[in-house]
Each structure stands twice: as structure tokens, then as C-alpha cells.
């Protein structure tokens, strides 16, 4: 039997990279997937590809930094498939490696809006559904930047540290209500998040890449998707509040 048979999963940032790989794997394992991204044509294409091979997928374009779009996303999932079982907060953006001395309010708020406030809002919207069912799984895609001090600029680093804190808070506080909340902290993965970097700050960039020589290799989106499948399945029934590092050993040095 498929690991996610008849489960309903919402996946943000699903037009490419890790989000797309997670959506495809979840669908292969029997889940009905609801895809979100600001890239409307991208998620529609992913949904079409999943449906073409016998899966079940719908695309809900939107920006998780906007409350209305979050409400529409979760409401559409429930209205279409009757419930929600799995929430994957994958959408994220970089911060041009801008250090604290030079970070602007606009950059800080934009990065926090997508990387932290968005996941908070999707979690907040999903928890009443999970609590009613006494069952639900949340997976936040964090980063080794949420464990280390300088894998990016100040805003991205702060957002991912905070996302890990949010993960642990939700995990403990709702554990007795059937909710599990875990995070994955990828290292360097070949995805399109680099497209969100424009004119990187050279001081911050040099600081961030100073440890790049210790990175054994870059990962692939499919390698993160298999971890997300494990966390969403009953195989991980006793895993809650965990941060699974997937970086090929980069942070082990």
C-alpha cells in the first residue's frame, strides 16, 4: 500500500525544486496534493504532469506572505478534497547575503514574510483542522542557515532560526492533540532558490561562502523529498519536534 494513500497534502513553493519533487513523490505515494506558488504557470504545469500519470493534484496560485492567499489555499484544499492531513511549508526566498549593518526594513520584512510569517499563517490556519481530527503533520523546510550563523545574510539567517523555533514550539504544544511538526534543514541543494538572489552583497557573500570549501557536494531535490515522505508517513509516528539535517555532512566538520 502507498505510504500516503488518500491523504491530502498542501505544499507551498511547489512550482520547482524541492516543492515540486515533494509534490510528485507524495502523489506517487497516493496523496491528493494541493500546490501553491506565486509562479502560476509553473504550478499548473506540475499539477498537469501529476494528473497525467494518474495522480491527483490541483494548483492554487498565491503568495503565502498574504493572509488572503493563505486562507484561500487551505480553504480550497478542504473544499476540494474534504480535509487536510499534511502541510509542507517549502516556499522560501534568499536575502542577497545582505549583512545586518546594511539590511533594509523592506528586505527584512519581505524575507520574513515569506520564510517565517507565511509558515506561521499556514500553520495557524491548519491547526483547527488537525485538532478536530486529532491528526495532522506539518513539515517546515528550514535550512542549515537556521543552525549556523552565516550561510546567508542577516534576514534569511534569522528567518530560518525562527522557523526552527516555531517548529519546536508547535511540536510540543500540540503533541497531545495528534499533531506532529518537524523541520528539514537542507544544505546546498540544486534548486531555483538562487533565482531570488539579485546583485548579492559582496561582503556578506564572501562571509557566507567562506565555509563552502567544506561542503562535500550539493544535493538534489529528490533527496529532500524522500525525507519529507518519511516525516509525512506513519513511519515517523514517533518523530516530533525534530530537525533533520540533510547536507551531505557539510555541518559535521
TrEMBL record:
Name used for this protein in its record: SDR family oxidoreductase
GO biological-process terms attached to the record: monocarboxylic acid metabolic process
Secretion signal span: none
Family designation: Belongs to the short-chain dehydrogenases/reductases (SDR) family.
UniProt xrefs under PROSITE patterns: ADH_SHORT (PS00061)
Native source organism of the sequence: Mucilaginibacter robiniae
Domain of life: Bacteria
Amino acid at each position: 500500500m502507498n505510504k500516503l494513500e488518500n491523504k491530502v497534502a498542501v505544499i507551498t513553493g511547489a512550482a520547482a525544486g524541492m516543492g515540486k519533487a515533494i509534490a510528485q513523490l507524495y502523489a506517487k505515494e497516493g496523496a491528493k496534493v494541493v500546490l501553491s506558488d506565486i509562479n502560476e504557470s509553473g504550478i499548473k504545469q506540475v499539477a498537469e504532469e501529476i494528473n497525467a500519470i494518474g495522480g491527483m493534484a490541483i494548483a492554487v496560485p498565491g503568495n503565502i506572505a498574504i493572509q488572503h492567499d493563505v486562507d484561500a489555499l487551505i480553504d480550497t484544499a478542504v473544499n476540494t478534497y474534504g480535509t487536510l492531513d499534511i502541510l509542507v511549508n517549502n516556499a522560501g526566498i534568499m536575502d542577497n547575503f545582505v549583512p545586518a549593518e546594511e539590511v533594509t526594513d523592506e528586505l527584512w520584512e519581505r524575507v520574513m514574510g515569506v520564510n517565517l510569517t507565511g509558515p506561521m499563517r499556514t500553520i495557524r490556519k491548519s491547526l483547527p483542522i488537525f485538532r478536530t481530527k486529532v491528526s495532522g503533520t506539518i513539515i517546515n523546510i528550514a535550512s542549515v542557515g537556521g543552525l549556523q550563523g552565516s550561510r546567508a545574510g542577516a534576514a534569511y539567517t534569522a528567518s530560518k532560526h525562527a522557523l526552527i523555533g516555531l517548529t519546536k514550539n508547535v511540536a510540543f504544544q500540540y503533541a497531545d492533540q495528534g499533531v506532529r511538526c518537524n523541520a528539514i534543514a537542507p544544505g546546498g541543494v540544486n534548486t531555483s532558490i538562487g533565482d531570488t538572489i539579485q546583485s548579492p552583497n559582496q561582503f556578506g557573500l564572501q562571509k557566507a561562502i567562506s565555509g563552502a570549501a567544506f561542503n562535500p557536494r550539493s544535493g538534489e531535490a529528490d533527496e529532500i523529498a524522500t525525507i519529507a515522505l518519511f516525516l509525512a508517513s506513519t513511519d515517523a509516528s514517533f518523530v516530533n519536534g525534530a530537525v533533520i539535517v540533510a547536507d551531505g555532512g557539510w555541518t559535521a566538520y
